[in-house]
Amino acid sequence: MSYQARERLRTVLRDLAAAAAFGSMVVSGSVPLWAVAIFAMSLALALFGKRILEGRGKLAGVGLGLLALAAFGVVLLGRLDLVVAACAFASAVTSYRMLSAMGPAADRQVLLTGVLMLSGGAALSGDLLFAPFLAAFALLAIPALAVGTLDSPMDLPVGPVLRHAAAGAALALLAGAAVFIAFPRLSWSLGARRTSPGLGGATAGFSERVRLGGQGSIKTSPRVVARVHISPEPEADRLDAYWFGRAFDTFTGREWRGAGRQLAPAPSIKLGPSGTEMLRQEIELLPAYSARTLIGLDPVVSFGQAAAHTQGGTGRTQLVEVEGEEVRFAEDALAYTYYAYSLAFPLPRKERISRDRFLSLPEPLDPRVGALARRIAGGERDPLAAARKLAEHLRSEYRYTLELPGEVEDPLADFLFERKEGHCEHFATALAVMLRTLGYPSRVAGGFFGGERVRGSFVLRAGDAHAWTQVFVEGRGFVTVDATPDANRAGQPAPLLEWLSLRYEELESHWRGWVLDYTLRDQIDLAYALVRPPREPSVGATLPPLRAWLAAALAGACAYSVWRALTRRAGRPRRHRASTLLDGIERILAAEGIERRAGETTEELSVRLASGRHPWAPEVSRATRRYLEARFGRRPLGPGEREALLEGLRRSAPGRRRV
Amino acid sequence: MNPRALWPRVRAFLRPPRTLKITRAGRTFLVVTIGVGLGALNTGNNLLYLVLGVLLGTIIASGVLSESALRGLRLRRLGTESAHAGEPFAYRYALSKASGASFALTLSEHGAEVSGEGSLAYLAPGAEAVVRADLTAPRRGPKRLRGVKVTTTFPLGLFAKSRVIELEDLLLVYPRRGYTCADPPEQASGPVGEGGNPRRRDGTGDLLGLRELSFGEDARRVHWVKSASVGKLLRTEREREERRQYTLEVEGLEVSEALDRRCEEAAAIAHRLLGAGHEVGLRAGGRRLRPASGSGQERRILTALAWLGFGEAAR
User: B57 and A154 in contact by Cβ < 8 A?
Assistant: First the structure.
């Protein structure tokens, strides 16, 4: 590959590595749009080889200085987070270097600012997508640097370099994982931002009112909006449970509203009497949830220990009860965690309600609604039995659909008598209004229906958002009666999307467990697991434990090292036996202060000694001649001959000559 | 065993098998790595630990790959045509590796009074590559070459890892090339060396005849027209109009700056006189070179001057 082609390859790899580093920040959803636009434009120009800032260093310097001042000012004004501003500035510096003159210095600066951007991405979010961006950076940056070390104008093959660099990058990632596992955690994870707005924005949530006639596209969204850990843990993989969020008591004919009174904020809210069998839920509302209403398994008894996660960190937050409607967080945040306690089984409950509030009907109400209700209920006196009859009728005679024509004059009459199809809000509204026409207090509840197991937790999707009816029963309170057909209550995402989102959620669960929440305790547990047998052998396990695998790998590595050392030793050329004679001669002569001069052969040395009438000359000459014959004359040394020659030489030493 | 002979072995034993030098970019990289590490320790952010792990892993990978680039190298010295003090000369090495490729190699002399280096971007497995190094010796004289330092910055350019391949040799550095202002006084005329030919056929006067060009003779004497017609190189023999013999004498035996300067001056004068076609001899350090002409004589004079003061022991 020519020098120019190598330069091009190197810069493309470098720019893509920088893009990966920038991507690690973008997944947090915190990077300002102007920074994203600048970087995207710079990347496109750089990939097309348009280095528009080449030779304009001063101009770029002034621009970066102004940008730094502006960012600092915005931070001082409190309109931008300091970390976000620093990340945006790092991306601007990277953009400048990508568009300036090519060269090793520019490469290194781009990649070093890339490392800074990765650090910024680590500080901004704990998103799973950070990992592939980090890996992509390593896999692109190391080959870019490796190609850069081939500083030669000659044509060179790049394939071997890229192969070595790719192996190096893989090794770096493996070693990085080992360092991550072994590096002692000496501090608690206080500075990590577990929550960021993320990409995609909000997809679910609650509003102050429910307006009939809207599209139901959210029902197909597979996006996870909440994670719940339930204790004691249910055995089912799909809960198909109602997660109560808020209730609506006033129907205007087009929409449902609440008229509850807001109470004082409190750290915990108790909504009803506790029972002996409670379900404890540790709930995490994700940024996609985008509402302040708390949810819990119906019927909820209490909420508490709420924490709000913002970009600035995590802190405790108060709860506010809106009487008879909902419990909401006192402050806005990206995400929340809290505990909810629910009854495992409904208990008798004495509850006083304002009947007028739950019997009010919109004016005017189509008279056909009441007539239909009376016809179906057939004089049923029990509100729950009447509700069930009405719900059964709606489920059997009406069709569920997410495709609606939009705004109509009377959405309820349109649903009941014209189209005879609608989504959960239509079914819930129809049942609640028909119950009210019969004189039974009722309301519409909003929340989620579903819950899928992902490892040890359950997840709720945006598509699980649901509305249902609650009828008031004396001695039991509000009892849920759902008129929506069974198959249409939970989310209805495309099967592939549902499968993909579940796998992603599993990965994210592993990511949180193994990476984000990895602590010194986990390190200690891991060390114990490696050296101690498990206390309770796992049932049905057929594979050996991890420590056995590691021990086997270590033993294998040792055996391989020994084998390599032995084969290398065996493959080494053996010294000629005559050479050992020469070594011996030189050693004896050196001990007596006689050394060969530079470039002087042994033969020349013996001649020199003979010409100087040195007393050793005859023995040295004899030994040298025998060495030459043995080494080059195909007359190998006989057994003991080497020792005899050396002994003769030693005996000829003046001080040791024997008489 | 002679303690003086033992010391180099001890020193070789104690010398680390590889040496590592951090480049400028490497220093910045280390500073950033330490910064990320401090940030991770300070905040406890596991993703920063992950970034730190990858950065440290990159250093480990760099060490492994650079080791693979340096391991298994075989080196031969090809030497140089001539080396003059104070100016770069081309010194060639033959480098090969049985298996696996090597990248970004730099070769320099280790432990010798010679500076400079040669580089090789890519060494294919099984092939022998000739590396030309531009070396410079500051002073004349015999230089004992002990080993060759092979350095690589592969794969990241952040660290320069080196190993020394023990390979002894002797490099004779001629005196520095200079110039002289005036010719020395003429010594004598007589039948010595090539100029001893009584016919004096190597002058610039009248044409005496043509004969075949011998090895080592000046190609400027070739009669190109006649050579072309005969099909072999014929040189002209012209009567020598002037012939001068010089014997340069360099005093002193102790190696010093002054002796170096005298040697440089003698070498410069010899070069100029021989270039002018004169016969030049040398008397220095108890040795005598009879006056003769030609490039061979210049090399003999330079060799004698390079050895001057270093004695027999150095040979």
Answer: no
How far from the centroid of its chain's Cα atoms is residue A405's Cα? Answer: 41
Band of pLDDT at residue A558, cut at 50, 70 and 90? very high
**Interface contact flag, A187 B53, Cβ < 8 Å:** no
The pLDDT tens digits for B170-189 are 999 999 887 665 555 554 44
What crossing angle do the helices spanning B257-275 and B295-307 adopt, rounded to 10°? 180
* Number of domains present in the structure of chain A: 4
CB contact under 8 A, A149 and B157: yes
| Cβ density class A553-580: b for 16+ within 10 Å, e for less | eeeeeeeeeeeeeeeeeeeeeeeeebee
Domain shared by A136 and A65, yes or no:
yes
| Same domain assignment for residues A282 and A228 | yes
What is the per-residue pLDDT for B240?
63
The reply to whether A80 falls in a domain is: yes
Most B-contacting residue of A1, A124, A145 (CB-CB within 10 A), to test interface: A145
Put simply, the answer to whether B60 touches A123 (Cβ < 8 Å) is: no
pLDDT computed for residue B129 by the predictor: 93
The closest CB to that of B57, out of A174, A185, A188, belongs to A174
Instruction: Confirm or reject contact between B93 and chain A (CB < 8 A).
Output: no
Residue in chain A lying closest to B120 (CA): A152
Q: Which of A172, A516, A587 sits opposite B54 (nearest CB)?
A: A172
**Residue pair B283/B304 in contact by the 8 Å Cβ criterion:** no
Q: Looking at chain B from residue 146 to 185, which residues have their Cβ under 8 Å from any Cβ of chain A?
A: 153-158, 170
CA distances from B275 to B128, B278, B293, B298 (A): 39, 7, 9, 9
Q: How far apart are CA A426 and CA A468, in angstroms?
A: 9
Establish if A590 belongs to a structural domain.
yes
Task: Check whether A581 has a pLDDT greater than 80.
Answer: yes
**Which chain A residue lies closest to B145 (C-alpha atoms)?**
A598
Instruction: Determine, for residues B64 and A168 on separate chains, whether the beta-carbon distance falls below 8 Å.
Output: yes
- Give the pLDDT score at A567: 79
- For the cut 80, the answer to whether the pLDDT of residue A396 exceeds it is yes
Across the interface, whether the CB atoms of A598 and B68 are under 8 A apart is answered no
Q: State whether A374 and A432 are in the same domain.
A: yes
pLDDT at A168: 94
Task: Choose among A138, A118, A156: nearest CA to A9.
Answer: A156
Residue B62 distance to chain A (closest CA, Å):
7
Quote the domain boundaries for residue A145: 3-182
Interface contact A187-B43, CB threshold 8 A: yes
The interface predicted TM-score of the complex, written ipTM, equals 0.75
Q: What is the CA radius of gyration of chain B?
A: 28
Chain A hits for B29, Cβ within 8 Å? 112
- Give the DSSP letter of residue B84: B
Judge if A359 and A484 occupy the same domain.
yes
Q: Are residues A552 and A473 in the same domain?
A: no
Tell me if A191 is assigned to some domain.
no
In B, which residues are within 8 Å of A187 by CB distance? Answer: 41-44
Q: How open is the CA angle A367-A370-A373, to the nearest 5 degrees?
A: 145
Q: Is residue A64 included in any domain, yes or no?
A: yes
Contact B58 A142 (CB under 8 A): yes
Co-location of A313 and A219 in the same domain: yes
Q: Which residues of A touch B36 (CB under 8 A)?
A: 115, 119
Query: Scanning the structure block, which residue is given the tokens 């200079």?
Result: B178
- What's the confidence (pLDDT) of residue A191? 52
Residue-wise pLDDT for A146-173, tens only, equals 998 888 888 888 899 999 999 999 999 9
Res. A190 pLDDT band, cuts 50 70 90: low
Based on the fold, state whether residues A108 and A230 are members of the same structural domain: no
Domain annotation for chain B: domains and CATH numbers = 11-173 (2.60.40.10), 177-194+245-315 (no CATH), 201-242 (no CATH)
Question: Would you say residue B114 has pLDDT above 80?
Answer: yes
Torsion A84-A86-A91-A95 (CA) sign: positive
What pLDDT was estimated at residue A601? 79
Q: What's the confidence (pLDDT) of residue A243?
A: 93
Residues A468 and A546 in one domain: no
Inter-chain CB pairs, A–B, below 8 Å: 187
Q: What mean pLDDT is predicted for residues A513-521?
A: 86
Above 50 in pLDDT, residue B110?
yes
Binned at pLDDT 50, 70 and 90, residue B281 comes out as very high
